[in-house]
Amino acid sequence: MPADSKTKTTILTLRRHKRTGEKTVLVTAYDYPQAMIADKAGVDAILVGDSCGMTTHGFKTTIPVTMDMMIIHAGAVSRGANDAFLIGDMPYMSYQPSDQIAIENAGRFIKAGMDCVKVEGAMVDRVKAICDSGIMVMSHLGLTPHTRAKMGGYRVQGKTAKSAEIVLKQARSLEEAGCSFLLLEAMPREAAEMIARELHMPVYGIGAGDKVDGQLVIMHDLVGLFWEFKSKFVKRYCEAGQMIQNALEDYRDEVKNAKFPAKENFYEIKEEELEKLLGDSGWKYEDLRVENQANPNHSVTPKTTKKGD
Ligand code: KIV
User: Fold this and answer.
1) What local confidence, expressed as pLDDT, does residue 286 receive?
2) The one catalytic residue among 120, 175, 185, 193
3) Sign of dihedral through CA atoms 26, 28, 32, 38?
4) SS3 of 267, please?
5) Mean pLDDT in the chain?
6) What predicted TM-score, i.e. pTM, was given to this entire model?
7) Is 264 a catalytic site residue?
8) Residue 47: CB within 6 Å of ligand 1?
9) Average pLDDT for residues 47-76, to the nearest whole number?
10) Which residue has its alpha carbon closest to ligand 1 atom 6?
């Protein structure tokens, strides 16, 4: 069995952050290069979120996302990230039907390389069943997209004392059930802070202010690869979509103007092999060789003379 990497973030690291007040940095990733980049950037944890349904598959909500889709994303992320703590997001109807189904699906995430699973809502018994099976759970309260219709849409939660108290009560029950982490989405800063202080487990926020134990942002929001809408809590750190589009436009122009590929991109053939190749073919490529060309970046118009022409 391979030894754990010395730099791998574990539950112990994340609990230490909570104790010492060091903020934990979480980001989503859905594939191998994103995971590698997040890991190299030194984020503490990666969520393979079912937000991939919207950001990567183009669905309008996360509801159509399936376990099979998530397992492909989780496997790719686990191959790209060495150090980050990995969380697999249980998609709609992967945990609701029964304890048995929830445990089996959580187990699939662990087999795909995840350290923990995330479960939306306050299904306390369900979360307990997963925890009792030995799998770590991050609960997700506040705005929970799987039940957005019941909430009347994507709405900030816990804006009244009564509703914030309900979230706190749910969070306490989930902690008692064995849950290891809590994620709060779209809640007022003070309500989220109170919940984070009341609980022993690390409490992270996405749109829940700066007083929780760490922050999650969806990578596509952060780097400018999602354009459908921009939540108030999102900060764009770059415009990767625009950068990629600029690169593709340069590529298009260079191909159209015969500037790409250029000499450094060509494979060479030895002189004698070229002569053999041309041999009896009837074709003459007097200026075919790159070194014979005045401007190798410009298109070669070979002087082709077919035998018998
Ligand atoms: O799927 C996801 O990325 C999430 C976050 C929005 C919390 O669940």
Assistant:
1) 65
2) 185
3) negative
4) coil
5) 92
6) 0.90
7) no
8) yes
9) 97
10) 51
